[in-house]
């Protein structure tokens, strides 16, 4: 999944931003690191951070190092963890970034908040239509398990659909705004075929392969009926797993969950 870094840079520089100072430091370090900036200067505290320094600020938790700063706000003993935009498996950042939140970042922040003695409870502030299935179930399971150690609540504010609903259902308690959209317990998958376009352009693609399913879902032909049937069965099984897990977390009947 590519990020349009030039566009983000153009929007984030040479223009006024409404950012909390501590988060602004993390945001620009993350942006600088991703864009390959040699250094970042922060006039307020006379910092001049190179790539290594930017990595420390943004929290290189993927290497196993313990983050040096909190990656959430604590309000009256409650750690507030924003979960917004598209949910992806491995974003590599602690916080939501460029319209995405990583399951890896959610779990890392949760673990940090659980071990924080000043945190008495955790609130997931969710505004997401869902995202990748990869990583979603493991993230939800961790939310459910960690909720046995400290209360983990979900605020569905204002969208918590599909994958985001899975995460919310794993929380100890769920709060919903008056205009929230929630539910959508289902699975969707897209297949793109460029066969017609390639034929018009006089291009013929020949795939050499070994293995019955190696060319399934290839973009150079229309989706064969047998492949469609196979993947439809896989999606149906994933939806059933989805509904079973939400029912387990919430205590709702599986049929009621499937009806959403």
Tell me about this structure:
The chain has 3 domains: 1-58, no CATH class; 66-184, 2-enoyl-CoA Hydratase, Chain A, domain 1; 187-260, no CATH class. The protein is α/β, with parallel strands linked by helices and 260 residues long. The strands form 2 sheets. Strands 3, 4, 5, 6, 7, 8 and 9 form a 7-stranded mixed β-sheet that branches. A two-stranded antiparallel sheet has the order 1-2. Strand 6, helix 5 and strand 7 (152-161) form a beta-alpha-beta unit. The chain has 9 helices and 9 strands. Helix 2 packs across helix 3 (51-58).
Keywords, please?
single chain, 260 residues, alpha/beta, 2-enoyl-CoA Hydratase, Chain A, domain 1, 3 domains, 7-stranded mixed β-sheet, two-stranded antiparallel sheet, flat, ClpP/crotonase-like_dom_sf
Summed up:
This protein is an alpha/beta fold. The protein has nine helices and nine strands.
């Amino acid at each position: 999944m590519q990020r349009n870094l030039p566009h983000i840079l153009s929007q984030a520089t040479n223009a006024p931003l409404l950012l909390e100072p501590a988060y602004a430091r993390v945001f620009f370090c993350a942006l600088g690191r991703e864009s390959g900036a040699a250094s970042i200067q922060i006039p307020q505290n006379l910092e001049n951070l190179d790539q290594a320094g930017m990595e420390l600020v943004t929290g290189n938790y993927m290497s196993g190092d313990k983050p040096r700063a909190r990656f959430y706000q604590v309000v009256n003993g409650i750690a507030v963890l924003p979960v917004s935009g598209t949910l992806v498996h491995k974003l590599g950042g602690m916080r939501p970034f460029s319209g995405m939140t990583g399951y890896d970042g959610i779990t890392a922040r949760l673990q940090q908040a659980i071990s924080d003695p000043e945190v008495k409870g955790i609130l997931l502030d969710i505004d997401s239509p869902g995202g990748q299935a990869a990583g979603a179930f493991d993230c939800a399971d961790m939310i459910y398990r960690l909720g046995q150690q400290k209360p983990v609540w979900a605020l569905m504010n204002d969208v918590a659909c599909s994958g985001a609903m899975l995460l919310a259902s794993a929380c100890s308690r769920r709060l919903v705004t008056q205009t929230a959209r929630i539910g959508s317990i289902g699975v969707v998958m897209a297949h793109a075929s460029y066969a017609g376009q390639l034929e018009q352009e006089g291009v013929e693609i020949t795939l050499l392969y070994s293995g019955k399913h190696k060319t399934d879902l290839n973009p150079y032909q229309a989706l064969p009926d047998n492949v469609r049937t196979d993947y439809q069965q896989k999606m149906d099984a994933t939806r059933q797993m989805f509904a079973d897990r939400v029912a387990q977390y919430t205590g709702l009947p599986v049929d009621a969950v499937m009806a959403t």
